[in-house]
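User: I'm putting together notes for a lab meeting next week and I want to include a structural view of one of the chains we've been expressing. I don't have a solved structure, so I'd like a prediction I can at least talk through. The sequence is below, exactly as it appears in our construct file.
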Amino acid sequence: MKKNIAIIAGGDSGEYEISINSAALVKRHLNDEKYDSFVIVIRGDEWYCEAENVGRLKINKHDFSLTVDGKAIYFDAVFNAIHGTPGENGLIQGYFDLVDIPYTSCDLTTSALTFNKNFCNRVVASYGVQIASSILLFKQDSYSVEDVLQGLKLPFFVKPNAGGSSLGMSLVKKEEELESAIELAFTEDDEVLIEEYIPGREISCGIFNFKGKMIAFPITEIITKKEFFDYEAKYTPGAADEITPADISEEIDIECKATSVDLYHRLNCKGVVRFDYIFNEDGLWFLEVNTVPGLSEASIVPQQAQKFGLSLADLFGMMVENMLE
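Assistant: Thanks for the context. Below is the predicted structure for the 325-residue chain, given as structure tokens.
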């Protein structure tokens, strides 16, 4: 008997369209002989499924069921393809815990912790991994540009403390650029993280715990043609080169994968997770962890999985199998 799989997409952040694309790719590659899959769009109070020849059908939020032609459909598992809120910050995970439906992503606690860049950095640093020096600003509090400049050395990144796809992020090289960069970041979040710029090469490592077996995908090096790997560079064809496997030394390859596996366990991650770093002559520097990494055809993890020898159908099927077991 086929299992019913809900692929949740959308969300309430600037990553809405990216999430919709990820969900469409997942549905296209899930084995329809094993699963009946439904893309469920979640945006604010609107939770619905676009059913073929029927139109928009609302989700019953009491049990996350769907009614089609008078028949209730209950889901065996949820494939989480929502980037940003509420899919990556723990909110939707708490809901599915309450209605007792398994899901592909990390649990509520891990999702909430890792989505908050400042909290995540502090925890990661406690495990001996290098992070950039930083200052956290709160929207409701007054702040001084002078204090920031005294506490950190230019250049630095100004970014929303909770957010993804580099939305609202700026690279500040001059003192006079700081105020506008902070204002831009505050349009995306009520907390702004300012981090010192770490020179070096950017690499990314996807990790997947499949039935207790840890899989470290081939590492990707990101070479942007812009000042940094911003939203445009991530999603505009030709704006960045993503080289998989990365042309790096065996030493860096081993350190990156070992660090990622260690952090995966220590942060209690689940499913497919992507860790991003900078490395230079001083070693490996942690940037962030993505607990719901992009799954569109342009995204890094699908590229890594295919280089590893997994088709997208294999990858998505394994993610679903993990839940159902």
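A couple of points you could mention at the meeting. The chain has three domains: 3-104, 112-129+199-324, 134-196. The domain at 134-196 is CATH 3.30.1490.20 (Dna Ligase; domain 1).

User: Perfect, that's what I needed.
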